[in-house]
Each structure stands twice: as structure tokens, then as C-alpha cells.
Design a protein that fits this description.
By secondary structure, the chain is mostly helical. The chain is built from five helices and no strands.
Length: 149
């Protein structure tokens, strides 16, 4: 019972899949940030292949992240939203949630938004996505501290 309380709405499997998916999103995003689409013609063939693979990974793992957020994030929010004993920890969670929503909204604008917004939204999506793991670590760092019984 103590373990489930510590997990705060997450199952171990969902947590592990979420970490793996975040690493996949982050790694493929770094490749896309380093080799943007406007530089495609100047890239060697092997670089174009790696960039194409990163686009595919980013798209497929986006779908997985949506599934995992539905599976793990909503139960976590439902359980934790009213528990504000550790206000700083709760605030990190809120900042992480807002950043995750901004990255997702910017990604949707990149896919479906008007072309005139692409450059500015791409910058926001890229840099916020690059910083997102640090924000999330700020939220979950207590997970690795020894528990006080």
C-alpha cells in the first residue's frame, strides 16, 4: 500500500513507458532541432536518413505519449490536485503540466496551424521541449530520495 501511495496514481509500468517515451521524444527532437527542415538540402544523405528517422520516431512516440497521458497522467492529477501539503512540489507539477500543454499545443500548431506561424511556433516548441525534461525532473526529484517511514 505504501508503494502505491508513493506512486501517486502512476503504475510502475506506465511510469517506465512514460520515461522511455519522453526520452524518445527528447532525443528525436534534439535531432530535429539540430537539423531543421530548411537545412535539408545541405545535409548529406546519411544525415537526411537520420533526420527522417527522427521525424518518424517523434510522430510515433507522440501517439504513445497521448496514450500514456490518458493512462497515467489523469489518474495522477485526480489524486494529487487537492493535496497541496508540499506546495513547492505541487507548484513544480503545475509548471510541468503547463509546459507539457504548451509543447503539445505548439506541436499541434506545427502540424495543423497556418504556415505563417510555423517559424515562431517551431522555436517555442523546440526550446520548450528541450527544457521540459529539466522541469519534469524538478517535479519528480523526491521520487529518488529515501522514504521516511
Amino acid at each position: 500500500m505504501k508503494s502505491s501511495k508513493h506512486m501517486a496514481g502512476w503504475s510502475r509500468a506506465t511510469w517506465r513507458w512514460m520515461v522511455a517515451a519522453m526520452l524518445g521524444m527528447w532525443g528525436s527532437g534534439v535531432v530535429l532541432l539540430g537539423w531543421p527542415a530548411d537545412a535539408l538540402m545541405t545535409l548529406d544523405e546519411w544525415q537526411q536518413d537520420i533526420r527522417h528517422g527522427a521525424v518518424v520516431v517523434h510522430g510515433v512516440v507522440t501517439w504513445l505519449m497521448c496514450v500514456l497521458c490518458g493512462r497515467g497522467l489523469w489518474p495522477h492529477l485526480r489524486l494529487i490536485w487537492q493535496r497541496r501539503e508540499a506546495l513547492a512540489h505541487w507548484a513544480w507539477g503545475l509548471v510541468s503540466w503547463v509546459a507539457l500543454c504548451c509543447v503539445a499545443a505548439a506541436g499541434l500548431l506545427l502540424l495543423y496551424g497556418p504556415a505563417r506561424l510555423h517559424d515562431s511556433v517551431s522555436e517555442l516548441h523546440g526550446w520548450l521541449g528541450l527544457a521540459l525534461p529539466a522541469l519534469l525532473l524538478g517535479h519528480v526529484w523526491r521520487r529518488w530520495l529515501p522514504s521516511r517511514a
